Amino acid sequence: MIFITQARSLTATPLAVSTARRRASSEALAFYSEYRTYVYVDGFNLFYRALKGTPWKWLDLPALFAKVLRPHHDILSVKYFTARVSGTPADKSKPQRQDVYLRALRRFRPEVEVYFGHFLRHRVRAPLVRPTGNQRTAEVIRTEEKGSDVNLAVHLVNDGWLDVYDCAVVVSNDSDIAEAMHLVRLYRAKRIGLLTPGSGKPSRQLMPHADFTRHIRSTALQRSQLPDPIPGTSIRKPLRW
């Protein structure tokens, strides 16, 4: 009698590979007291959700994350993604204040790396909230920041492939970063943390790809300010900050 059996495929699915890697990674990390941690900061998301309108813009980023994260995170690098701002008729000194802050951050915190996107400004017609007569739209200047979210996602994935961290912490609420977080967890078995600026809810698109979430509270911002002046320099916090 001849028995015919169907051979099972030996090709592992991405999910099976990810599960095995994450288990092995967790077991390996159990022997260590700390995670090698990289923090990826969406600068404009942090500013508009947590810093705008507050006196806490002179922010010491590594000090903030040391307070928000648990002690087993060894923060090796903070990558800060932003763009050069332009002055406006109402506030022409914006670029100078930003430049002073970035110089202070680089001088006092050499572990912070700054990466720049860019702004696009163009005229568009937008509907009026209260139309008057036949006028229902008006021409406005729209400013859009481009590149920061893409740069953050690329660095998150590339650093994961290079195995420079055990845990990546994303500081943003921008859902465009979700796929990068998903890939790093799936194929590199890395832990992902999500820090949400402000008091709003974390993005529903980002939360499924995070191993843990935290909020950045105003009390943590207040207690994480750079010295003024920066020691050994003449760099001071701008007066209007």
Mind explaining what this structure looks like?
With 241 residues, this protein is of the alpha/beta class. The protein has a domain at 35-117 and 147-222: 3-Layer(aba) Sandwich (Rossmann fold), CATH 3.40.50.1010. The chain is 32% helix and 28% strand. It contains 7 helices and 8 strands, in the order αβααβαβββαβαββα. The chain has helices at residues 14-29, 43-51, 61-68, 94-108, 148-161, 178-188, 218-222; strands spanning 35-42, 73-82, 112-116, 118-132, 135-146, 167-171, 191-197, 212-216. The strands form 2 sheets. A 6-stranded parallel sheet has the order 3-2-1-6-7-8, sandwiched between helices. Strand 4 and strand 5 (135-146) form a beta hairpin.
Key attributes of the depicted protein:
241 residues, alpha/beta, Rossmann fold, 6-stranded parallel beta sheet, 7 helices, globular
Q: Return the CATH topology of the domain at 35-117 and 147-222.
A: Rossmann fold
Number of discrete helical segments: 7
Oligomer: single chain
Which CATH top level class of the domain at 35-117 and 147-222 fits? Alpha Beta
Mean pLDDT: 86
Radius of gyration using CA atoms only: 22 Å
Approximately how much beta-strand content do the residues carry? 25-35%
Helices and strands, in N-to-C order?
HEHHEHEEEHEHEEH
What structural class is derived from the secondary structure elements? alpha/beta
Distance between the termini: 87 Å
Question: What is this entry, summarized?
Answer:
This protein has 7 helices and 8 strands.
Layout: helices, strands, pairs:
Blueprint: H1 14-29, E1 35-42, H2 43-51, H3 61-68, E2 73-82, H4 94-108, E3 112-116, E4 118-132, E5 135-146, H5 148-161, E6 167-171, H6 178-188, E7 191-197, E8 212-216, H7 218-222
Parallel strand pairs: 1-2, 1-6, 2-3, 6-7, 7-8
Antiparallel strand pairs: 4-5
Helix pairs in contact: 1-6, 5-6
